[in-house]
Amino acid sequence: MSFNFTEEMVKGKKHMEILNNYDNNKYDFRPFAIECFKTGKLDMVHENNPSYEVFKEFGPDVQTWYHEKFYNYLKTNGGEMQERYDNLIKDIILPYLNLKEALVQKFPSFRIQLPGNKAVAKMHNDHTLGHPVGEINFSYSFTDMYDTNTIYIEEMPRSKIFKPMNMKANNNICFNANLCMHYNEINETGKSRMSMDYRILPLEYLPKKDLYSHSTKQKFVEGGYYNLIKL
Hints:
With 231 residues, the chain is an alpha+beta fold. It has one domain (5-230): Jelly Rolls, CATH 2.60.120. The protein is built from four helices and ten strands, in the order H-E-H-H-H-E-E-E-E-E-E-E-E-E. Strand 5 (151-154) and strand 6 form a beta hairpin. The protein is globular. The termini are close together. The mean pLDDT is 95.
C-alpha cells in the first residue's frame, strides 16, 4: 500500500500526533536505559556524569559520553531491545501508517538534552541534511518531554510557527521533521530529556540518486541506513 506524505504529514493528521491506541507497557524501552545508565531516575542522569558547553555545531552533540554509553550497551546487551524495536515497528508503527512494508531505520538515534544545553545544535529540517523526501519521523520518550527540554517544530513547512512536542515518558510521537524546521531551546527545566528518534521510508519514496546520512555516512538504501520490514 502507498503513503501520501503530502496529505498525511500535516497538522491535524499525523504531524505531531502522539500514538495512543496501543499497550505502552508492551513496548517500554525505559528498563534498557535504566540498566545502561545504572539509574532509576533517567531525567537526573546528568548527576555525577559529564556536562558540556552549549552545543553550537553538528557533530559534538551526538558524540557525548551518554551516546557512547548507550550505543556500547546496544552492541553488548541490545538484542532484546532490538527485538522490542522491531516488534514496535511491525505491531504498531506500520499499521498506524497503513503500510504492509517499508524501509525502517535499523536502530533509533539516541538523544540527550542535558540541563543548560541542547540535544541537537542547530535548527534544521532533515531534508536539508540529506534525508530523502517522504521520510516519516517518530520520537520515543524515555523521560517526560516538556517546556524547554523538548523539540520545537514548525506546524507546517515554512510557517515559522513553532510548537513544543510535549509528551509523557514511554510514548511515541509522529511528526514531519523531514520538511518542517525544528530546534531545541536551552534546557532550563533542571531535568534531562532522554529520547530516541527513528524514521520510516515508504518504498515509493526511495531516492533515485545516492544519498547518505550526514552523521553515520550510511547510504539511504536497504542494508545501509534502513532495513526492509514486512508484515
